[in-house]
Design brief:
CATH superfamily of the domain at 263-452: Reverse transcriptase/Diguanylate cyclase domain
Oligomer: single chain
Number of helices: 10
Low-confidence stretches: 418-453
Strand content: 15-25%
CATH class of the domain at 263-452: Alpha Beta
Mean pLDDT: 81
Distance between the termini: 56 Å
Radius of gyration: 50 Å
Length: about 450
């Protein structure tokens, strides 16, 4: 896949994902708005119905001509005859509500009626939705709303509010408790207008997001094509920057005079090595080297001579260590060598070989002058289960001071003794039989060996 496609396809997918998320959110918001509109319509009808109910209750009912009622007159309804001979009947609040519901049964009119799952009149029996709403309200719900279709497929708002038992209701509904939810005020309102408005808004939302999806695709294509040339330029600059960073990283971790790792790099490598699984509980020999009389070499022969001695010492240390060992210049004339898997004897043998290699070398300076440097070394061992590198370095440093105090040009082991058998010392630079075969490389230890500055 080309670089352009690698940019184009994810960017296009991300854009379309964003458009899809926005579309879903807008459609959900529109649905919530439609539900809220339905809820408001239902509440308005219930509020008007409740006001009429309460007024009728407050005035003790209303007297009306039975000829104008939309519902049959009940046998137990109170009647009265006026002086002019007209007969009137008294309707209480439930009968007024029933008559209003019957009058609003035509399409386009809102209806409200009282229903229950335990009605006195079977005409007031709740249907399945009303029964479910009634159960929820008995559990604490305050209203129920639903957008549905009537038997002719026309949209309607169905809304229900709880009807609680009052003291005045107990005469008709003995056994009920005041405050219980006895039934519902069930409302049906034609929803043509709100559904049509919602559908129009949905179409607008869909059209807008379709346009956004197309526009986004075009923008991504244009940007991706324009990005090709910029991408090549950035790639070239990135390669140059990466190369410079590698140079800087090497320079930050390398002693420029000897080419050995510096103190920071050595300690970072030690922190990794001491906890590395490859260690597997093996000990580590810490050897600190310090050139004897280095200041005198600088003062007598100049700093060029001191630099030459440092470079020769660094070459000897490189030859004495294995790839997995740590060797570094950690001070002005101080060097560190850490050998993994080596104990006191092996560490001492390494230190002796480096010391003998330097003592047997002559650093030839410009003009033919020769310098024969020596060094002292301190050896300490970090146990296989120990990770205290600082303690091992302190012990090696103490052993180094002991070597200096003991006359210089010698190796001391922390805790006393050298740890090397006499026959090992007699090898004079041959491979140490106490180390794994081939781990140590022979050093140029023949008497009179010369190292050019």
């Amino acid at each position: 896949m080309s670089a352009t496609r690698r940019v184009l396809l994810p960017a296009l997918a991300l854009w379309l994902l964003g458009v899809g998320v926005s579309l879903r959110w807008n459609l959900r918001t529109e649905r919530e708005r439609l539900d809220e509109a339905a809820r408001e319509v239902g509440r308005a009808v219930v509020d008007e119905w409740t006001a009429t109910w309460n007024w009728t209750r407050a005035v003790g009912g209303v007297w009306v001509d039975p000829e104008g009622l939309a519902t049959p007159v009940q046998p137990d309804v109170e009647e009265a005859v006026l002086a002019d001979g007209r007969a009137l009947v008294r309707l209480d609040a439930p009968l007024v509500a029933a008559d209003r519901a019957a009058r609003g049964s035509g399409w386009g009119a809102a209806t409200a009626r009282i229903v229950s799952d335990r009605p006195v009149n079977l005409d007031d029996l709740a249907d399945a939705w009303e029964t479910a709403a009634l159960a929820r309200m008995r559990r604490g719900a305050t209203e129920a709303v639903r957008l549905a279709e009537d038997e002719w497929g026309r949209p309607v708002v169905r809304y229900a509010a709880p009807l609680r038992v009052e003291a005045a209701c107990l005469s008709c509904h003995p056994g009920e408790r005041v405050g219980d939810v006895r039934g519902l005020v069930s409302v049906r309102v034609p929803a043509d207008s709100i559904v049509a408005a919602s559908a129009a808004h949905r179409r607008d939302v869909l059209g807008l997001h379709a346009a956004l999806a197309i526009l986004g695709g075009l923008l991504v294509v244009v940007i991706a094509r324009a990005r090709r040339s910029v991408e090549d330029l950035l790639r070239r600059h990135a390669r140059e920057l990466e190369a410079r960073n590698r140079v800087l990283a090497r320079a930050a971790d390398t002693d420029p005079l000897t080419g050995l790792p510096n103190r920071r790099a050595a300690f970072r490598r030690l922190a990794e090595l001491v906890r590395h699984p490859a260690r597997r509980g093996r000990p580590m020999a810490f050897v600190l080297f310090d050139l004897d009389g280095f200041k005198a070499i600088n003062d007598t022969h100049g700093h060029a001579a001191g630099d030459a001695v440092l470079r020769v010492t660094a070459r000897l240390l490189r030859a004495a260590c294995r790839p997995e060992d740590v060797v570094a210049r950690v001070g002005g004339e101080e060097f560190l060598l850490v050998a993994l898997g080596c104990g006191r004897a092996e560490g001492t043998a390494i230190a002796e070989r480096v010391r003998e290699g330097l003592a047997g070398s002559a650093v030839i300076l410009p003009g033919g002058r020769a310098v024969r440097p020596t060094l002292s070394a301190g050896v300490a061992v970090l146990g296989g289960q120990d990770e205290d590198v600082d303690a091992a370095l302190r012990q090696a440093d103490e052993a180094l001071y002991a070597a200096k105090d003991g006359g210089r040009d010698r190796v001391e082991v922390h805790g006393g003794g050298c740890g090397v058998a006499e026959e090992i010392c007699a090898l004079r630079g041959e491979a140490c039989r106490y180390c794994p075969a081939g781990d140590l490389q022979p050093l140029p230890s023949a008497p009179g060996a010369v190292a050019e500055a």
